[in-house]
Structure formats: C-alpha cells, structure tokens
From TrEMBL:
Keywords: NAD. Gene3D superfamilies: Dihydrodipicolinate Reductase, domain 2 (3.30.360.10), NAD(P)-binding Rossmann-like Domain (3.40.50.720). It comes from Amnibacterium endophyticum. Residues 137-291 form the GFO/IDH/MocA-like oxidoreductase domain. This is Gfo/Idh/MocA family protein. It holds the Pfam family GFO_IDH_MocA. Residues 8-128 form the Gfo/Idh/MocA-like oxidoreductase N-terminal domain. It comes from the Bacteria. The keyword NAD applies. The keyword NAD applies.
Length: 390
C-alpha cells in the first residue's frame, strides 16, 4: 500500500471504550475513512452506530465485514486475550493492523504475530501511544541531549487513582483476559522505561497482591456498558466500590525490578487504589537526574545536574508542553503515524519488537510475582521483522 493516493479504507474491530481512537481516522494528514465496525455483541454494534454514524456499517464478525467491504487497515481494540486471534487472519489477508497495546497477553502470541507480519509483509503496528505523549518525548529529548549523562537507572511510580473504575469492573479484572495489570496497564510504562534507557529488560522479578478489591463483594451490573457509564470520582473510598467484575483475580498493587544489562536497572510500582492519578518517572544518569511532576500539560520536568542539598525545584525546570489531556493528544498522533505508515511506509516511533519487549517484561513479571518473586529471564524473539528498526 506504500504510495497509495486513494483514501485508506479502515475498519475498527471491538467497540469497547478504546474503540474511540477510531474517531481520529479522518482527522490525520493521511486520506482515510472509517467504513466498517465489528463487534460480536448487539450492544457494541449499537455503540458503533452512535459513535461513528450510519455511514459506518456494523457487522457481527470480521469475515462478514471483509466480504462486504475490502479493507486496507483495521484497528483492533478487542479484549487483550483475543488480539492474536483477531489480528492473525487480518495479517494473512493483507490488511494492515493497528493493535491496541498490549500486543498480546503471552509471549507465544506475540511471537506468532511477529512471524505472521514478517512472512506476509503486512504492516503490524502496536498502539503504544505514550511515546507520543509530550512528557515522554520531552524527557527522551533531555536524555538524548546529554542533560543527565549516561542513563544508569529508571524508576516509575504509577498512582492509578481511577483503577477501581478503569480495571476492576469489567474483563480487565480477570487474569484469563489480561494476564496481569503489570502487563495490561504497565505495558505503557515498561515501553517508556525501555525507550528512555535505550535498553530492554533481560531479567525481571516482582511482588504484589490483590489487597483491596478482592474483598469487595458487590459484583456485576455493567453488562453492555463501557467505562464512562460507571465512572465517577465520587466512587470513594476504594472499599466502597460497587459493581466489580464477577471475577477479580488480578493484583491491585504490584512492584517489579528489571535488569536491563550492563549494570543498568529499573523499577516499576503500580497501585490501583490511590486517591490521585498520575505517573512519575525518575531517570538517573552519570551527571544528573530528571523527574516529572504531573504527566500532562500544566506539569513540569525538573533536572538536577549539580551537587547540593535538598532542592525541590531542581536546577532546571521545563514545562510539559501541549494543551488539554495528554492521552487524547497521544491517541491522535499515534493514529496519524499508523495511517502514514500504511500509506507511505514512513517510519514509526515504536517497533513490533519493542511492543514484544514490553509484553515480555510484564508477562514474566506476573509469573515471578505469582511464584514468590523468583527471577525470570527474557528469551529472545524468534524472528526479527524487517520493520523492527522502525
């Protein structure tokens, strides 16, 4: 499809909350139009009609959609455990795939996707939109410019204050569907840690537990709904949450340590019942450190690059750029990058190998956590797709 001048025909598969990213399809620099929506449920197809309008035809399955309307690209936002099942036939059919992160919930499925993308030559893109968030791009630019010297450690604390609403009232709470929130939620941050350090996880160990939401007995009541329909900041305190998923067996607090090789290390901490919601990165190098306070426009990045006692404002303070919420901005930029890649073959900020690296760290951390913290070594990918350098 490189060099095509016609508008790309795009479908969206799985009309849950993240399907909203398909609303960006017609608003990038690449001519493209959303033509079909697919969901196995009647509620999902009705949602597609409300979100995308009557000109986007709704179907109950992918074969029916492809028979009615050939596609150049598909946006896959189905539950995580179905990513490989949905994406593999599309790749085999020559339909470029935007796969919502994480790439899959197991390394085996990631490697099946890598093999199919390499063999068929069909574009496969994983939506790690945090690489397009202003706070991350600005920290990466500071690191690359030598502001803190050579990176030796990266720490990330993620205060998931909305976790009870975001992850414990639907399929995300079921480890059969997500594996772990160290994979589902943390894949963003694991990819950022890898990007900022210029390295990937080689060995991982983790600890964690289901400490709060497992004791909430009020379950069910959200069938056919998506998250904004039950979300409220008034859902507090965490123990008073209602309507949790019938199955809740993923951890709500977890911590992992990563060996990135050559003495470079990283850590990640995640809690789903904090009162505040933001992520904090600390990057320490041989000549300083940087840290973000807030992760959207209005926050700042501070750099300490000389020796002194406690200095809360640092030696350099950089405002986080942009307007509004960072996630929406990053979604639009990510969709634009995907469509441009499909149309022209232009490079992308994240490769499929990088997406596989994030899954590897999170999935093996979950194994470690559930096995007393025993270390896990990351196996190499069996294939290296031609697009891996993107």
């Amino acid at each position: 499809m490189a060099g095509t001048t016609d508008a790309l025909r795009v479908g969206v598969i799985g009309i849950g909350q993240r399907a909203e990213i398909a609303q960006h399809v017609g608003a990038t620099g690449t001519p493209a139009r959303l033509v079909v929506a697919v969901d196995t449920t009647e509620a999902g197809r009705e949602r597609a009609a409300r979100w995308f309008g009557p000109e986007v035809a709704a179907f109950a399955d992918v074969p029916s959609a492809l028979e009615a309307q050939p596609l150049d690209a598909a946006i896959v936002t189905t539950p995580d455990d179905t990513h490989a099942e949905v994406a593999l036939p599309l790749l085999e059919a020559g339909v470029a795939v935007y796969l919502e992160k994480p790439m899959a919930i197991t390394l085996e499925d990631c490697d099946r996707l890598l093999e199919a993308a390499e063999r068929t030559g069909t574009p496969l893109y994983v939506g790690h939109n945090m690489r397009h968030a202003s706070v991350v791009k600005q920290m990466k630019a500071l690191v690359d410019d030598g502001a803190i010297g050579e990176v030796k450690a990266v720490w990330c604390r993620h205060f998931v204050g909305n976790g009870g609403d975001y992850y414990f009232k639907d399929w995300h709470a079921d480890r059969r569907r997500t594996n772990s929130l160290l994979l589902q939620k943390a894949s963003h941050d694991l990819d950022v840690i890898h990007w900022l350090s210029g390295r990937t996880t080689r060995r991982v160990t983790a600890m964690g537990a289901l400490t709060v939401y497992g004791g909430v007995t009020d379950r069910g009541g959200h069938e056919g709904q998506v998250m904004p329909e039950w979300f409220s900041l008034d859902n507090w305190p965490p123990e008073a949450q209602t309507g949790l998923n019938p199955v809740v067996d993923v951890e709500d607090v977890s911590m992992m340590l990563m060996d990135l090789g050559d003495g470079v290390t990283a850590s990640y901490e995640q809690c789903h019942f904090t009162p505040d919601y933001w992520r904090n990165y600390t990057v320490i190098g041989t000549r300083g450190r940087l840290e973000n306070f807030g992760d959207t426009p209005g926050g700042v990045i501070r750099v300490w690059n000389r020796r002194h006692e406690y200095a809360p404002t640092g030696d350099l303070e950089i405002p986080i750029e942009g307007e509004g919420e960072g996630h929406e901005q990053a979604d639009a930029l990510t969709m634009g990058e995907f469509l441009a890649h499909v149309a022209t073959g232009s490079p992308t900020a994240v490769s499929v190998l990088a997406a596989r690296d994030a899954v590897a760290a999170g999935a093996l951390a979950a194994e470690s956590l559930r096995d007393g913290g025993s270390p896990r070594d990351v196996p190499p990918a069996p294939v290296r797709p031609a697009a891996a350098a993107a």
